Amino acid sequence: MTKTPMTLGGKIRALRLAKGMTQGELAGREITPGLISQIESDRVAPSERVVNLLTKALDVNPSELLSEIELRHRQTQLLRDARDLLDRSAPHAAKPLLDLLAQASISYVTKTELDLEIARLYEQLGMFPEAETLYERVSARALVHHEWMIGASSLNRQGELHLANGRYILAYHCFLQALWYLDQSTQPIPQAVFTTRKNLSITAYRLGNTDQSFDFARSAFSDVKTSGSRVDCAELCHLLSVLSMENKSGEEALAYAREAISIYSSLGQTYALTDAYMNLAIIQRERGYSQEAVSLLPQLITDYHKQGRMDALSNAWSERAQCEISIAQYEDAARSVERALALSKEESPERAEALRVQGLLLRATAQYDVAFLTLKNAAARFEALQLLNSAVATLEVMKDMILRQEKADDLFVVDELIARFSLILKQRLRVTEMTVLPPEKKHV
């Protein structure tokens, strides 16, 4: 049977016991017994001064212990380097470093720490099922060992994977658990608290609970103003502007949108600044200022084209078409919609949105039958993409067409579809309302 190699702490403990010494006797007058206990359990790496004191007390050569300290430092640096590479989305460069750590016969990196980075590696390599499975194991192990910050990080990343794949209820519960893990930590990282609350706000909004989304966003905004970066502050301003429009608070939405623009502009965040101006154009149109909105869009369309962001470019053309419909420039709107459709992918939110706007244009030009079919197509696509808020809003337009006798169709069918979508939205809403949040502490 192969004997497991000893760690530094294990060696010190074995030498102490061989000498028949207690931890207090080894500590002497210059080291505390508590520090000896931490060193022997490998929770703390001793300094060079402490190593010299220990080697004298144990009557051994310092090189016997220093080699173990060097190994510990080397492994810690490998993990740090791998983490930095993953932060820069360089998984192929990080993989050899993580492989070395995974194959080490003596490990000073905890399995939870290592597996968290391996799960990130899987995620960046596109191995999503493997990443999700490992994130689940990491968060479960972190709960057992009270590694709260690692568990919160794992749950946040797992939730972001669910969010990206439209699994909003699963994402919501992951983020909520992450907030609970952070609440257990004696020293939570403010950035982690902010990220979790922001994720909860976005997910609650997707689940149809605008009020709760607003609560999380405001809490995150409070975190940001005291300890966050200016980029984080701008992100929250952007999110709060969208939520304010949902709550029919146009002036508040406008103020948040302009603050986001101001911050992104001062930081030189080009992509984010373009998106912030796009958000401003949407707010202006929804507040009834379509002429002001349409004046912003040519530059935004140019910027998105230069940035090569085709999905965003498609949405910009759809937004321009909506503005042009509002000011009765129907020929221009038709050209804008055609560009939006040409730029969008077949099974994408951008294609569904372009079809919805095309339906609005056809209705505005009294082509009711074709408009109804186009809107029906858009609603079905929104449903398939789990964008049920958009699906219900589109069906409401179809219902209004029937009520105004613009389209002689079966109102019962539309009512039934709206009821079905509304039921799903209410079920999702109930998930967020029935969930009991963890007890608050002053840091969360």
UniProtKB/TrEMBL annotation:
Keywords, sorted A to Z: DNA-binding
Every HTH cro/C1-type domain range: 12-65
Organism taxonomic ancestry: Bacteria, Bacillati, Bacillota, Bacilli, Bacillales
PROSITE patterns: HTH_CROC1
Highest taxon in the source lineage: Bacteria
Short name of any one Pfam family annotated for the protein: HTH_3
Molecular-function GO term, any one: DNA-binding transcription factor activity
PANTHER family: HTH-TYPE TRANSCRIPTIONAL REGULATOR, METHYLPHOSPHONATE SYNTHASE
CDD domains in the record: HTH_XRE
This protein's GO CC annotations: cytosol
Annotated InterPro entries: Cro/C1-type_HTH, Lambda_DNA-bd_dom_sf, TPR-like_helical_dom_sf, TPR_rpt, TransReg_Diox_bact_type
Protein's recorded name: HTH cro/C1-type domain-containing protein
